[in-house]
Amino acid sequence: MITTAYVVEEVLRNLPDFPPLVIGAWVGLRSELLLMEDLVTLDRPVVF
Question: How many C-beta atoms surround the C-beta of residue 3 within 10 A?
């Protein structure tokens, strides 16, 4: 799966609000993520 550093930071910021089971799932999921650069566009869709 592909994600960006912004998304990872948001997950880490919100993890304390969830039960320990979710934190364990995140640890497993995180190792499967491919980090890509954040792209910023102004009122234009980004298509890959």
Answer: 16
Domain membership flag for residue 41? no
pLDDT (tens digit, 9 = 90+) per residue, 5-47? 889 999 999 999 999 999 999 999 999 999 998 877 677 776 6
The answer to whether residue 15 is domain-embedded is: yes
Asked if residue 46 is part of any domain, the answer here is no
Domain-located, residue 42? no
7-44 per-residue burial string, b: 16 or more CB within 10 A, e: under 16: eeeebeeeeeeeeeeeeeebeeeeeeeeeeeeeeeeee
